[in-house]
Amino acid sequence: MSATPADPYVPTRGDASYGVEHYDLDLDYRVSTNRLAGRARLDVVAHEPVRRLRVDLVHLRATKVTVGRTAVKWAQRGPHLTVTLPQALAVGERAEVTVTYSGNPRPVRSSWGEVGWEELDDGVLVASQPTGAPTWFPCNDHPRDKATYRIAFECDSPYAVAVTGTLVEQRVRGSRTRHVFEQRHPMATYLATVHVGQYEQVVLADGPVRQVLVAPVPLRAQVTTELSRQPRMMELFTRLFGPYPFDDYTVVVTADELEIPLEAQGMATFGPNYLSGRRTHERLVAHELAHQWFGNSLTVKAWRDIWLNEGFACYAEWLWSEASGSQTANALASQHWRRLSLLPQDLVLADPGPATMFDDRVYKRGALALHALRAHLGDPTFFEVVATWVAANRYGSVSTADFLDHVDDLDADGDAVPLLDAWLWQTPLPALPRI
Asked: Where would I find the Peptidase M1 membrane alanine aminopeptidase domain in this sequence (predicted)?
């Protein structure tokens, strides 16, 4: 039986015939040679009768595959590892698939640039969105396929290691240090990351949510200044969106400049060019923090729904601006509406297509749609919609249809969904109401 395509935006990734409930990764990395050796156990469950599993793995070579304790037939061609199970799984049946592999990890080319494992001048980062996760571990690479993780990562002792999850064990063995992280909340593959660098860890806030900075020592002063208002952002967002969904929040700042900031589960990554100490990019600090609710706790079922991640995170920027005494959401909405009105009116927000799913119009039009909904419903109902949306789907997967159903359930007049239809499914830019 051939693999079932998982998402039309990324047809070469994912297999919808099965899901992974847990990943157990045991990784050994040599910084000087960029050599990664790993063993990955995937606890899989069949979503349909299946005899062969298509597992995503890029630039790394498998050397052994077992199902349970049984060695099985497998073939690796291009970005896929096809595993033949000893016997077919019926719907709901489970199996443990273990892959031993190694190689020199590197990014994979995609329609959105190079993504995945990336060597820095002195260290590593992983930027997996949307298709880079298979550059460092075998996986079912689809945003809807969320799993828990245990990640053991051993590398040279002078280097600090930050991985998505909570550090539960650390052991020094000669010149090497083994770090073990656990991610107990379901996580999409693209939100798993590793950072290796000459970093120092600093606690920015102990509570109510522990917030940690991981950065090179020479950058500490400028970065802590830039992040000084992040604890207030956390207070605002927990009040508006509900409890912070993970155990803690880590901001990693690389020594290298980066093209864009990156979010991962319970973590954000910035280059020093975005945290200069002058707070010129503070909106991005708010944006990446907001992704912990919108994108990480609530993850899209398919990439066409990406506005649910980026529209909400962009609108969170405007909410922070308003709450901190800077520009109001009204002012920012008017400003961005004018800019969008001058751009081509050919984007369908709820299905932008793979070529434009990260277009800035998705971010801004998504935020404008939420602002229009807020103006229509009024603040009490709008923020009730947002908070209950987050609570009802905590750690789950969501779609545009799910959001519209949720809005409709809380809209007493029943006319909010038609209003959103113009923003989501029509190409002309609707008129913008003011709050």
From this structure: 228-409
The CATH number linked to 49 is 2.60.40.1730
* Residue 188 to residues 64, 133, 135, 137, 178, Cα–Cα distance (Å): 25, 10, 15, 13, 24
**What is the token pair recorded at 97?**
């698939």
Tell me the residue length of the chain.
Answer: 435
pLDDT tens digits in sequence order for the chain, 435 residues long: 456 667 999 999 999 999 999 999 999 999 999 999 999 999 999 999 999 999 999 999 999 999 999 999 999 999 999 999 999 999 999 999 999 999 999 999 998 999 999 999 999 999 999 999 999 999 999 999 999 999 999 999 999 999 999 999 999 999 999 999 999 999 999 999 999 999 999 999 998 899 999 999 999 999 999 999 999 999 999 999 999 999 999 999 999 999 999 999 999 999 999 998 888 899 999 999 999 999 999 999 999 999 999 999 999 999 999 999 999 999 999 999 999 999 999 999 999 999 999 999 999 999 999 999 999 999 999 999 999 999 999 999 999 999 999 999 999 889 999 999 999 999 999 999 888
Could you tell me the CATH number of the domain that includes residue 396? 1.10.390.10
| The domain boundary residue, chosen from 292, 318, 346 | 292
User: Is residue 225 located within the same domain as residue 240?
Assistant: yes
DSSP calls for 102-137: EE----EEEBTEEEEEEEETTEEEEE-TTTTGGGTS
Q: Are 95 and 68 in contact (CB under 8 A)?
A: yes
* Angle in degrees, 0-180, between the axes of helices 360-377 and 416-424, rounded to the nearest 10: 170
**CB-based contact 216:232 (threshold 8 Å):** no
268 and 394 together in one domain: no
389 and 407, same domain (yes or no): yes
Q: Which of 146, 161, 242 is nearest to 191 (CA)?
A: 146
Counting other chains too, the contacts that 267-276 makes at CB distance below 8 Å and 24 or more residues apart are 267/162, 267/164, 267/193, 269/125, 269/127, 269/193, 269/195, 272/219, 272/222, 272/223, 275/219, 275/222, 275/223, 275/226, 275/227, 276/222, 276/226
Residue-range definition of the domain harbouring residue 396: 300-424
List phi, psi (to 5°) of 389. Answer: -60, -45
In terms of Cβ atoms closer than 10 Å to its own Cβ (0-12, 13-18, 19+), residue 143 is: buried
